[in-house]
């Protein structure tokens, strides 16, 4: 007889493993199925985020930033470095060890919370009187509730499959064994910019080809322009409004033919090509047709606002459903679904989900952009404060960027906060908390912030909404 569970989670990424743990905390007999393998064939929990996404990319970003500081900026601090070298293999090894620590940490959390783990692919077999029969690797198990958290896959260019040697997805981009002399990225999204930053810092000549006429169209326009100025200054070559044509692998690497914004035919040769044109929901091997699970035209699982699918007691969260493809959004949905199964009122507010691009300078935002408010006809006030006028930023030697507040012109409620600059990923949390409690810009302006700190720029930007900055 198949093992029976109250809740079965298919997928062990941020949405899946968090959902399983929360379900177990709520008293359910929970199981999680995940097929990721490490180099030795063992389980590698954490999904794309831990294995080939958020975690390893941040490890390489940190390593490459250390290298750039040592090679270009230490002298400003009176630190003279001679004989500076670069060991890419060791850098990649450190990245792999960080990944393994996270993999092992999730396994520990499963044991701590008594979550049963099955290593292998999870797929629907059939629906029955006791719930849903699920193939879990080599076993078959039954669950009353099923949470699908199978994530997403990198989108390939038509006719140009990933070989992860020359034509790279985020996976291959994290495994390049030596610094390429020339690197081309197609797409200026989050993954592209982060990986382009890594290899540029380490010495690669990086060109980004973006089809859209604007840079980072989802970002507040003023913030995006400030970021592009910084990237241009760093030597990251970004071409907008391009139309990519034929791509051919060569003995030396790859050749990309494209038309630039002026309509001129161009050709660029490179050692490696990273394709970063978005991601697609992953339902490979899930066998949704076995139980009649409904998918949309994008291949995403159709869910309502509470993550319920077309089937009773089947839920879906994270990248495989609508909404932003962000690890922390998946986590919030995973927790909310587990709580809804328990009869509680799980909460996810898409308007207060923060976004971060971990380049240097970092870019982070929450809420609406200025262009969105204009398009919606919302009356608003804006306030900005540059890190150039922040004492801690000067001491750090990193004064690029600004903090920007957008508030309702009548009520002063914060509608959006946008940051480009040092530690933006950490600074944005204050704005998320403020917006979740529907705070006004004056609330932030009147809160005491430590001095000297980067967070003072947040306070000053809030003061700027009322045109009363104190340090600029």
UniProtKB/TrEMBL annotation:
Broad EC category: oxidoreductase
Binding site for FAD: 58, 122, 150-152, 319, 325-328
Domain FAD/NAD(P)-binding: 5-334
GO BP terms in the entry: 2-oxoglutarate metabolic process
Binding site for NAD(+): 187-194, 210, 278
Name recorded for this polypeptide: Dihydrolipoyl dehydrogenase
Domain Pyridine nucleotide-disulphide oxidoreductase dimerisation: 353-462
Compartments in which it is found: Cytoplasm
Cofactor(s) annotated in UniProt: FAD
The organism of origin for this protein: Ramlibacter agri
EC numbers on record: 1.8.1.4
Disulphide bonds in the chain: 49-54
Cofactor binding comment, as recorded: Binds 1 FAD per subunit.
Keyword terms of this UniProt record: Cytoplasm, FAD, Flavoprotein, NAD, Nucleotide-binding, Oxidoreductase, Redox-active center
Catalytic activity, as annotated: N(6)-[(R)-dihydrolipoyl]-L-lysyl-[protein] + NAD(+) = N(6)-[(R)-lipoyl]-L-lysyl-[protein] + NADH + H(+)
GO CC list: cytoplasm
Family listed: Belongs to the class-I pyridine nucleotide-disulfide oxidoreductase family.
InterPro entries: Class-I_Pyr_Nuc-Dis_Oxidored, FAD/NAD-bd_sf, FAD/NAD-binding_dom, FAD/NAD-linked_Rdtase_dimer_sf, Lipoamide_DH, Pyr_nuc-diS_OxRdtase, Pyr_nucl-diS_OxRdtase_dimer
């Amino acid at each position: 007889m198949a093992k029976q569970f109250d809740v079965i989670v298919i997928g062990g990424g941020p949405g899946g493993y968090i959902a399983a743990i929360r379900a177990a905390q709520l008293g359910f007999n929970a199981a999680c199925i995940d097929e990721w393998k490490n180099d030795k064939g063992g389980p590698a929990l954490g999904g794309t985020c831990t294995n080939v996404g958020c975690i390893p990319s941040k490890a390489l970003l940190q390593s490459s930033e250390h290298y750039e500081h040592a090679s270009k900026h230490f002298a400003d601090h009176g630190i003279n470095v001679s004989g500076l070298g670069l060991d890419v293999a060791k850098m990649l090894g450190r990245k792999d060890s960080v990944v393994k620590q996270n993999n092992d940490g999730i396994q520990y959390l499963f044991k701590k919370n008594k979550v049963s783990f099955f290593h292998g692919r999870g797929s629907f077999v059939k629906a029955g009187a006791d719930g849903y029969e699920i193939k879990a690797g080599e076993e078959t198990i039954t669950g009353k509730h099923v949470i699908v958290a199978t994530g997403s896959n990198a989108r390939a260019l038509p006719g140009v499959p990933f070989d992860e040697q020359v034509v790279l997805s985020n996976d291959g981009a994290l495994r390049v064994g030596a610094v390429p002399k020339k690197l081309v990225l197609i797409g200026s999204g989050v993954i592209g910019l982060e990986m382009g930053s890594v290899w540029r810092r380490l010495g690669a000549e990086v060109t980004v080809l973006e089809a859209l006429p604007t840079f980072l169209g989802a970002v507040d326009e003023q913030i995006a322009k400030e970021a592009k100025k910084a990237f241009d200054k760093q030597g990251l070559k970004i071409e907008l409004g391009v139309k990519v044509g034929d791509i051919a692998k060569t003995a030396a690497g790859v050749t990309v033919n494209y038309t630039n914004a002026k309509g001129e035919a161009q050709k660029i040769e490179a050692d490696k090509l990273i394709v970063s044109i978005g991601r697609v929901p992953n339902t490979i091997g899930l066998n949704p047709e076995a139980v009649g699970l409904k998918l949309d035209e994008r291949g995403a699982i159709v869910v309502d606002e509470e993550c319920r699918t077309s089937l009773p007691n089947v839920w879906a969260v994270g990248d495989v459903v609508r909404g932003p493809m962000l690890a922390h959004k998946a986590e919030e949905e995973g927790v909310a679904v587990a709580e809804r199964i328990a009869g509680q009122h799980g909460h996810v507010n898409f308007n207060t989900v923060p976004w971060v691009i971990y380049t240097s300078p970092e870019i982070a935002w929450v809420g609406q952009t200025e262009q969105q408010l204009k398009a919606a006809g919302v009356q608003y006030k804006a306030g900005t404060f540059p890190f150039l006028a922040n004492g801690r930023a000067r001491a750090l030697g990193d004064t690029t960027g600004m903090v920007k507040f957008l508030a309702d012109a009548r009520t002063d409620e914060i509608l959006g906060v946008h940051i480009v600059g040092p530690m933006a990923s950490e600074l944005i949390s204050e704005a998320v908390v403020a917006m979740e409690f529907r705070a006004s810009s004056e609330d932030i302006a009147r809160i005491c912030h430590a001095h000297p700190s980067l967070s003072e720029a947040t306070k000053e930007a809030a003061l700027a909404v009322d045109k009363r900055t104190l340090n600029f």
